[in-house]
């Protein structure tokens, strides 16, 4: 069904062109003269026009409450409304990290229980909740790895990443001062010969996502772990795709030493646009002494912040993490329980393979047949009609669907990465598949319709180059 959403917005024009209808009185605000605003433009409009203006803006947005997000590698799942409501309670929103611990026992208990739950889910021995997001978790995990090697006198300054890695992996390694060694994949998985050739006495760690960004489970992961450990290095797990394996296996069982969790992906906190996020890090026992401080501890009578960690890397951010995200993750885990988390992974894999079975008949899908929570198609054949996967994605907007992830991972030319998560029904998946196939039919029948899409959205196709060079960052830029 087409989403008719194009209309004029006269109120916005009034704001941009309106007269000066207000001013700030001469009061001492301790604001430097050059920075103090003297006048304020406020249009004189009726209440119902203001309400309609903001309601129209909300209708122009797309969110998980609006429709299906097929974004691969992003895990844009349903966010339960009970957790959103509870996280807005004053008991949550109004607490302060400088409060006395005696007044925070409930919050500390939630943080402690979340640490314990994540450790069990990940097969780790200890967890820190500090990191602000997945990439920050990577940075923290690699900082721990660096401190571990330095403590033991190991002169190791290289980190190996596969070419299928998330882009933040090499960035996190480089920010910690490591030299990044990239190895090529073979059949969509780690090339064991390439890994063996890259491992040396300089290797500090090997970073791996499993399932990887193609949605393929690394079947040689136990062998990989042995190779890395035999070389004296550590194995790092990127937890972005954890929602494919929860309850079935764990990074700890596979042989990983360090991992990060994406609470805003796997454990159902809404994310996008830069936040909110949370990337707790789990470690095996031999790395516990290097965790950042503080961790939440319990002595049998009270919960408290424990700063007594012998070889801590110190703090990696102010205070103790993003508590509202902790709460939502804790609620999600408590509500589902172990069996529910396992079922969520099973349904995510089922939904992915259901769509894969339909769409792979219409576009090529390199490498292995069976995938986990996501799969990657190639739109290479669209070039025969002078089109790209970008055009296909833009046309999907006209049918009311958010575009999939495109051009990532780069292992697949003209890649289209799709992840339905466990949240979507068969009816929703069928609707998306129908629209996807319809667009491919249009490619054959009237390629120009696809090439000039979208046609029914609030904003038509933008000039990509101009958008980068001259981005609209505020309403003033629209004048």
Description:
The chain is an alpha/beta fold and 479 residues long. The chain folds into three domains: 50 residues, no CATH class; 255 residues, Aspartate Aminotransferase, domain 2, CATH 3.40.640; 130 residues, Aspartate Aminotransferase, domain 1, CATH 3.90.1150. Helix content is 37%, strand content 12%. Strands 3-11-10-9-8-4-5 form a seven-stranded mixed beta sheet, with helices on both faces. It is globular, with a radius of gyration of 25 Å. 39% of the residues are buried. The N terminus is likely disordered.
Which features would summarize this protein structure in a list?
single chain, 479 residues, alpha/beta, Aspartate Aminotransferase, domain 2, 3 domains, three-stranded antiparallel sheet, 16 helices, globular, disordered N terminus
């Amino acid at each position: 069904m087409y989403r008719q959403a194009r209309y004029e917005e006269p109120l916005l024009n009034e704001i941009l062109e309106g007269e000066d209808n207000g001013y700030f009185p001469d009061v001492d605000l301790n604001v430097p003269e050059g920075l103090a605003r003297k006048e304020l433009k406020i249009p004189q409009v009726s209440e119902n026009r203001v309400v309609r203006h903001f309601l129209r803006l909300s209708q122009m947005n797309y969110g998980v409450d609006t429709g299906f997000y097929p974004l691969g590698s992003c895990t844009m799942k349903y966010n339960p409304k009970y957790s959103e409501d509870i996280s807005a309670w004053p008991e949550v929103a109004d607490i302060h990290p400088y409060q006395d611990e005696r007044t925070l026992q409930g919050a500390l208990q939630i943080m402690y229980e979340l640490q314990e739950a994540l450790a069990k889910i990940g097969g780790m021995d200890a967890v820190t909740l500090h990191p602000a997001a997945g990439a920050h978790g990577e940075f923290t995990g690699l900082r721990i790895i660096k401190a571990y090697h330095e403590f033991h006198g190991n002169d190791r300054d290289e980190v190996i990443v596969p070419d299928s890695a998330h882009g933040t992996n090499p960035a996190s390694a480089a920010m910690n001062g490591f030299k990044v060694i990239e190895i090529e994949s073979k059949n969509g998985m780690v090339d064991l010969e390439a890994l063996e050739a890259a491992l040396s006495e300089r290797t500090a760690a090997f970073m791996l996502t499993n399932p990887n960004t193609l949605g393929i489970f690394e079947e040689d992961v136990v062998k990989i772990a042995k190779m890395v450990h035999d070389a004296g290095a550590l194995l790092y797990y990127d937890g972005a795709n954890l929602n494919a394996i929860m309850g079935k296996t764990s990074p700890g069982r596979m042989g990983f030493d360090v991992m990060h969790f994406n609470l805003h992906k796997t454990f159902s906190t809404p994310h996008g646009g830069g936040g909110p996020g949370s990337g707790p890090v789990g470690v095996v026992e031999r790395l516990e002494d290097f965790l950042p401080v503080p961790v939440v501890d319990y002595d049998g009578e009270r919960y408290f912040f424990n700063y007594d960690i012998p070889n801590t890397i110190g703090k990696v951010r102010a205070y103790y993490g993003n508590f509202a995200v902790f709460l939502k993750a804790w609620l999600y885990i408590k509500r589902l329980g172990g069996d529910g988390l396992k079922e969520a992974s099973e349904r995510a894999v089922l939904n992915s393979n259901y769509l894969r079975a339909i769409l792979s008949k219409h576009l090529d899908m390199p490498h292995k047949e069976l995938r986990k929570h996501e799969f990657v198609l190639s739109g290479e054949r669209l070039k025969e009609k002078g089109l790209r996967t970008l055009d296909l994605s833009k046309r999907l907007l006209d049918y009311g669907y958010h575009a999939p992830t495109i051009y990532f991972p780069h292992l697949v030319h003209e890649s289209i990465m799709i992840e339905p998560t466990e949240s979507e029904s068969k009816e929703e998946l069928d609707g998306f598949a129908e629209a996807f196939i319809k667009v491919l039919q249009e490619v054959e029948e009237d390629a120009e319709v696809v090439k000039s899409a979208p046609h029914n959205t609030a904003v038509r196709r933008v000039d990509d180059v101009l958008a980068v060079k001259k981005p609209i960052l505020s309403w003033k830029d629209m004048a």
